[in-house]
Amino acid sequence: MANITKKVSWSSRGDESGAAGEETPLLNGSEQSRPLRQMSSGSTVFQIGRLSTVDLEEEITTEEDSARGRPKEIPHNEKLLSLKFESLDYDNIENQLFLEEERRMSFMAFRCLEISRWVICGLIGFLTGLIACFIDIAVEQLAGLKYKLIKENIVKFTEAGGLSISLLLWAALNSFCVMFGAIIVAFFEPIAAGSGIPQIKCFLNGVKIPRVVRLKTLVVKVVGVIFSVVGGLAVGKEGPMIHSGAVLAAGVSQGRSTSLKRDFKIFEYFRRDTEKRDFVSAGAAAGVSAAFGAPVGGVLFSLEEGASFWNQMLTWRIFFASMISTFTLNFFLSIYHNKPGDLSNPGLINFGRFESEAMEYNLYEIPLFIAMGAIGGGLGAFFNFLNYWLTIFRIRYVHRPCLQVMEAMLVAAVTATVAFVMIYFSTDCQPLGPDHTEEYPLQLFCADGEYNSMATTFFNTPERSVRSLFHNPTGTYNALTLGLFTLTYFFLACWTYGLAVSAGVFIPSLLIGAAWGRLCGILLASTTSTASLWTDPGKYALIGAAAQLGGIVRMTLSLTVIMVEATGNVTYGLPIMLVLMTAKIVGDYFQEGLYDLHIKLGSVPFLHWEAPATSHWLTAREVMSSPVTCLNRIEKVGTIVDTLSNTSTNHNGFPVVVQVSGDDEPAKLCGLILRSQLIVLLKHKVFVELARSRLTQRKLQLKDFRDAYPRFPPIQSIHVSQDERECMMDLTEFMNPTPYTVPQDTSLPRVFKLFRALGLRHLVVVDDDNRVVGLVTRKDLARYHVGKHGLEELHLAQT
Amino acid sequence: MANITKKVSWSSRGDESGAAGEETPLLNGSEQSRPLRQMSSGSTVFQIGRLSTVDLEEEITTEEDSARGRPKEIPHNEKLLSLKFESLDYDNIENQLFLEEERRMSFMAFRCLEISRWVICGLIGFLTGLIACFIDIAVEQLAGLKYKLIKENIVKFTEAGGLSISLLLWAALNSFCVMFGAIIVAFFEPIAAGSGIPQIKCFLNGVKIPRVVRLKTLVVKVVGVIFSVVGGLAVGKEGPMIHSGAVLAAGVSQGRSTSLKRDFKIFEYFRRDTEKRDFVSAGAAAGVSAAFGAPVGGVLFSLEEGASFWNQMLTWRIFFASMISTFTLNFFLSIYHNKPGDLSNPGLINFGRFESEAMEYNLYEIPLFIAMGAIGGGLGAFFNFLNYWLTIFRIRYVHRPCLQVMEAMLVAAVTATVAFVMIYFSTDCQPLGPDHTEEYPLQLFCADGEYNSMATTFFNTPERSVRSLFHNPTGTYNALTLGLFTLTYFFLACWTYGLAVSAGVFIPSLLIGAAWGRLCGILLASTTSTASLWTDPGKYALIGAAAQLGGIVRMTLSLTVIMVEATGNVTYGLPIMLVLMTAKIVGDYFQEGLYDLHIKLGSVPFLHWEAPATSHWLTAREVMSSPVTCLNRIEKVGTIVDTLSNTSTNHNGFPVVVQVSGDDEPAKLCGLILRSQLIVLLKHKVFVELARSRLTQRKLQLKDFRDAYPRFPPIQSIHVSQDERECMMDLTEFMNPTPYTVPQDTSLPRVFKLFRALGLRHLVVVDDDNRVVGLVTRKDLARYHVGKHGLEELHLAQT
């Protein structure tokens, strides 16, 4: 159901207007809806967006709108696969044009291409590092300003009474920041909401999420995350870095910006999905690398979450981008921190240095770590469960941008209030050390020379709170403080994730985990007589943080490396691994990971690593879509236009066939052509009759296709006259003459493996005589999944 | 040329007798050579081995021997691709039997399979850890014994004069140990020579190197490495761990030992190449993990060097195996070192802890690091260049086992002599510190309370020497000592690699690098006035070690992680990356990496990551082998036997076809069957006529194929009577009915991608009517490579 689904944070409205307006047209984007689409460009976009929502049906003015907007389909649930998402094509279209170009290229030209790939990766890393640096400095400055203001206010009113004014000030400041952050997200670019990690996962998986790698998205994302962090929400600035890196990569690698209408005429060779995907992996890795100072972790993240075919050279380039990214960030931050040239403190988040001697662990602690991992897995699953229902609720009832902004402001105000109340009633006073590490120690009702311990957790950016929990000496927090903090922050963070703000979930997860981890450490020390064994609760804070984060996002390999790189100490590699594994196993027992959950709620046709285990009894014959709309090698223009305009055609790719015998027999496969290619051909009027009459017409080149990539115009924008409809088009040169095919009896796992390993978009199913009998696309494979009752099939819907 | 090639350390003799005797028969293994093969089993194997060498032609006794042994082919060079190596098949044979089994399996059964995979990975990790532990303790004990003996002797004779007796003792002890190590390798299992890393790379790439994952290989490898390290050669014990882990994995995952003739009737499902490969990756990772205490590095090693299709679940299992491996090793070593339960010191090699504060680096040091990387790359290329010619020399002249043993003994004696002479003439005396870290300080002619500095580098196991170079305080070594040491050790290590002993090249490389790195540090400190900047030469030793190792083996990502994990400090991650990248780029300019060089010298059909850049003008039509020997779906037994026995058939896979029209037309493809399957069918006499007459004959099951895996008997061992020859065989049930196919016009890169991504062994080329026109196998793709003059084609030879 169009209107309900699209409010899931990122399959949101932009997706509709974007897909219809600028991307390849939707399959149901028939001619009738053209007026709407034309309207939706420019500034009226928001209104249209709102018009087509469920509970505003009375406002719907045109027939077309109601056809799109009315909830005539089944209500949204996660057992649904949207037909709205298109696929990316990671298989090169090796048509004659392409092969000719490749064959013309010398070995040196390939060398140059390879060098430009490295240069682009370097650029991606550099720019990602710069953006990370910008975010970091902006957040630090603004948050510093805010906390200083509030602290002065609190100090003023602590003596005089009337702390409620401080509370109001705090809540108002937070709400204001968050309001700004939410407005730009909800109204300008809804796809920029959340951490962006699910979107990038989908992109790397091969699903085209509209507008996800646009310049506008990047700007909204970066500005949005600054305001949500400064606004004191329970969010981190790390997740958005990954998205930012990916957008940068997609932009830089194309050598132009479609939004700014600037084409630098460089890197034209890379204007196709295959190459773009590789660079986006590098960008995502560079983002992780900048966020956590973890270049290796970044590479592993890209590979664990995205890649399928592992290519050594690609991996090295990704690594290079990651490296440059950390390097750039370090370098500029070292200048900012007045220690120019000191590169030893990488990353946006810095967990501080764990000293090896103090932090050794022993065999008998391993079971404890595993138990903590299990707790983390359980809590993570609970977090995801709550968030799942919250998201469903949001999809149903909080889908208007203004409602979204109001919800974000509410959360901001509540966060401030809860924090204030907790601090106010806390009696946990700690002496202010000589080298007081707290940036903003709040004295409140504590004695002179003491500070409120609860305030160190709440009255700070989450990054600093995590560091305090890891490193503050034993006794800094009492158990009650930590317990209350864990409880409240858990629900706040859960409520926050999924708001229409740009924000990540890494840091809140770490913070929750660090709090209960430290609590465990304190409890252990107090229950055992040999207290010296459990001296350092910071160790348990680290383990708890890993467990909680692992329980929520369910990454293992990359997360281990990220944690190890962020703590700067490999001693804890082994326990962290154990903990993450345990958290994953326990968590998976109850609920999927947070990102997977949101992908599922978005009804995205996401392909997992392998076909479902019990799917061997399915064959290509059952899986494929049929009948297939085929085109002849030499086809009438009118037929092509009609085929493309036909709303019932379900595919973006058309097998090209040659008739051999009678018309009754299905024709033999001789190629595959894409909608986007046909559009370009129509636009340039590459018609056989025309070519004959005007000999001067230049031959269509690969460049024409590259120039149109990736925003191919919809078929409706191309005018074909009645005369032209009678012309013929020769597709031989443009089609892919050697598409991958499978016989009808191929089992689903085999089809799946071929499809996934090669990143295909269309797989033609042929019979023994090489005649087309069907076409397998992403949705045909993605709809099978293992549910509670064995293999289940998801419904397909035009949501 | 059979006799010359086979002495390249690992395409050596075992390969010939092994392949012919026990593996699937060689393609040219016709019936005439059967007497020889039968002779070659048992104790006469050495003699046969020697008989079939070039310069012993006069000893050749039989016609068959001369046919195999005479140098009738072109002389060996690296522009040759051996047809002798078979491929592994990473594509599941989804025939009816398999599909029936899969369809019968419930979801729970798949769960159980998944759990057994985890259990197996755990077992692999555990056993690899145990073996690493055994090697470590054995080396430490034996080396301790040796050095104590020599030290006492030296002390005795320093005063009395007659140190030449000490020299003799040292050389004799070394030679004796090495002799033993070389004898078991050269005579019992030549495949166990060297580090084993190239072999494992090939295995994971899909090349079947005979005998490489046998139990006997493991035993020889483990015992061999102990003796070569104790024998004082310039070798490490780390490389062989990777091979050991892989062998263990191959054994454990099959639930039986063919060598010991024990079948535990477990894990039968995993008895095929696809599954075995996955476990071998895990084993290799566990080996790296145990060797360097680097679980993440292990995973990356497996992926960087081996995998092509990245599967998340597989990666996690590999990670699990690595983790368990380090864990086991740590645990047992902690007991051995009397600190039970202290798990903070992982790995066989321990670089010692780098303290973060003392070791910070600054921006202006980055160019220095890069320069050192370039030096490392250059030196590494020089090392590889020397070793390349040495290997060619060995292939030509040192191929008899007894010569190999003698060469190894010579190297051992020379190593001892050089070390002794260097120590003897060294005047670099250092005061013995209060906490003298040296295990065996040699006083020699130094004053009392002082020790000979040169002796700390030579008179020690290489691992300890590396650690000393990293951590000994400033001034421990003088520049001359380090310079001389680098020079001599460089040539010794180069001479040593490729000997018929089980040994790795990691540690010697690190040692050379650490020596010249430290030298750089000392020189820098002495040339600059602001000496305080370059206080710690240990830092430069680390960078030098990374540069040298990177220059020799050319790994980047995994090596970075391994170095970081082994040093226990991530601060140096960034410089190490930079250095490794530089070393790789500089090194690649001159010469390939050491492992790739040895793979090339072995004429192995190794598939790289991508097709050569300028290969777009080649299509499947040019690449494929044709005509193809096809079988009919219902074929006469006699035809099958003749086909399999025919020496001119070049393939192990046969397309199965059905005739549709006249006999003159090529028939339509309907499946693919492997030689190994046909062998099993013939062995069980699954003939149509027989089945009809004896109704009780049981149906052939998947189990029968699994029991025969992987050592299928040669066709000559199967007796088929004249009556049986007239029977028919129905292949329908056993063939793979949906082999992957490509049209004739598919470009080479496209064929390559399909082949590599899916790990195929046979790819059928069909025409428009689905008729078989050719077959592409590994050698067809591997023979194209980019040389100095663009695309070159390697020669194929039955070497």
TrEMBL record, chains A, B:
One term of GO molecular function: chloride channel activity
An example Gene Ontology CC term for this record: lysosomal membrane
Places the protein is found: Membrane
Annotated membrane topology: Multi-pass membrane protein
Keywords in alphabetical order: CBS domain, Chloride, Ion transport, Membrane, Repeat, Transmembrane, Transmembrane helix, Transport
Protein family according to the UniProt entry: Belongs to the chloride channel (TC 2.A.49) family.
Protein name, as recorded: Chloride channel protein
Protein source organism: Poecilia reticulata (Guppy)
